[in-house]
Amino acid sequence: MDPFLQAALEEAEEGYREGGVPIGAVLVHGDRILGRGHNQRVQRGSAVLHAETAALENAGRQPASVYRECALYTTLSPCPMCSGAALLYGIPRVVIGENRNFLGEEELLHSRGVTVEVRQDPACIDLMVRFIAEKPELWNEDIGV
Amino acid sequence: MDPFLQAALEEAEEGYREGGVPIGAVLVHGDRILGRGHNQRVQRGSAVLHAETAALENAGRQPASVYRECALYTTLSPCPMCSGAALLYGIPRVVIGENRNFLGEEELLHSRGVTVEVRQDPACIDLMVRFIAEKPELWNEDIGV
């Protein structure tokens, strides 16, 4: 697996072990991970720290010039908030582990010129299938359903 | 002034006094404020706690049924991330202090069925004019420029 998607998946797996929503993300600049994170709904009672926003938060304040050379890797197709975060910072490339369990705002990203790559990675798919079967109410809460 | 916009402005003014980006927001359900907040870029080194996401975060985990009866008040037209947060949670109404200093994703919100109200409030406008003149680099960082 792509090492950056692997790192995002490790974040997701950590979230699963913590009893949380198992979605992970990393913000990548060149060959370096600037920030990594996973959904914090359960762990921190957070409504806004999804995997992608957590990775951005953990990367700290970065200059616009850096974001514009970054890729955002996430294990699951990004929701409107997280897609919007990518647009806010002009992140040019979003790499998505899978979109079978949830289809986020890929079309919006594409329409704004972001390169969107969907890997349909079996490990990413399986982890979400397991989680959604185990905790459907938590999952629904996370996506506002 | 609308008391909820006033509360958002008070958050923005607190952010200004703290040396931060002076944008404030409140999440309102019926006649009650569920959460309030202001941009935390300077105060907490945050890349994702804008006014609106901070208000959502401070409101804590809410059921989808509550968000769908809420209004999100913000002193400034919401950026893609914060507009996306409103879409994620199905918040049906966004009340905006002003959009003269920054025009966010109002069209996207409108196209998805969100009621968008822009008040062009002089106090909201003046606070941002002052801030942008004083700290243009901080402002540009906040909007990814």
Automatic annotation (TrEMBL), chains A, B:
Keywords: Cytoplasm, Hydrolase, Metal-binding, Zinc
PROSITE patterns, A to Z: CYT_DCMP_DEAMINASES_2 (PS51747)
Keyword Zinc in annotation: yes
GO cellular component: cytoplasm
Cofactor: Zn(2+)
Pathway(s) where this gene product acts: Pyrimidine metabolism
Top-rank taxon: Bacteria
Major site of localization recorded for this protein: cytoplasm
Pfam annotation, one family: dCMP_cyt_deam_1
Residue ranges constituting the CMP/dCMP-type deaminase domain according to the UniProt record: 1-116
Quaternary structure and partners: Homodimer.
Protein name: Cytosine deaminase
Organism per entry: Thiohalorhabdus denitrificans
